[in-house]
Amino acid sequence: MKRSFFRATIVTFGLAALFVSSLAEAQWVLLARRAIGRVEQMSQQSQQADGASYDSAAVMIDAPADKVYAAVLRGLANNTQGVKITSQDAQQRLVQFTNGQQIAGIKVSALGDDLTHMLISSAHKGDQPDAAALVLNSVLRVCAEMKVECSKAQQ
């Protein structure tokens, strides 16, 4: 009698844990779907002429990471504004590039089968023009090539 009660209790707890975990996953997916295509951007400009500054942007894209990475590489290779790839790592889906004055990098990460996080970061000296437009345009170009709607997040 005790043994069957113990089994029933374990089965009940197991089913409850399975139900709770599926609810938590559904909540995460719902939250992620609301953030898809919303480009978040962050910058800091140095107050000193020779100080370091940065610009970065991040977006989640509803597409496979390998396809997003391939679109990034195509976009950089076809760029006519003097952008040159300085290094790339297909396994980590990481590309670093420069326009001669500023350096930047793009990291593409898979969050699921068809959900990708893309992070772009650029560094420059305080006396150089900021790269915020370059960073944002890179994100929007990849989104357009992937036929995914992206827009700058409202502050």
Task: Jot down its keywords.
7-stranded mixed beta sheet; 155 residues; single chain
Kindly summarize this structure in a few lines.
With 155 residues, the protein is of the alpha+beta class.
Written overview of the protein:
By secondary structure, the chain is α+β, with helices and mostly antiparallel strands. It is 39% helix and 33% strand. It is built from three helices and seven strands, in the order αββαββββαβ. It has helices at residues 2-35, 65-77, 132-145; strands at residues 38-44, 52-61, 84-89, 94-98, 103-112, 115-125, 151-152. Strands 3-4-5-6-2-1-7 form a seven-stranded mixed sheet. A hairpin with a 4-residue loop joins strand 3 and strand 4 (94-98). The longest helix is centred in the first third of the chain and has 34 residues, at 2-35. The protein starts with a helix and ends with a strand. The mean pLDDT is 75.
Largest sheet report:
7 strands, mixed
- First-residue to last-residue Cα separation: 62 Å
- Rg value: 22 Å
Shape: elongated
- The mean pLDDT is 75
What structural class do you assign from the helix and strand content?
A: alpha+beta
The H-and-E topology, N to C, reads as HEEHEEEEHE
Percent of sequence in beta strands = 25-35%
How many strands appear in the DSSP assignment?
A: 7
Break the fold down into its secondary structure elements and pairings.
Blueprint: H1 2-35, E1 38-44, E2 52-61, H2 65-77, E3 84-89, E4 94-98, E5 103-112, E6 115-125, H3 132-145, E7 151-152
Parallel strand pairs: 1-7
Antiparallel strand pairs: 1-2, 2-6, 3-4, 4-5, 5-6
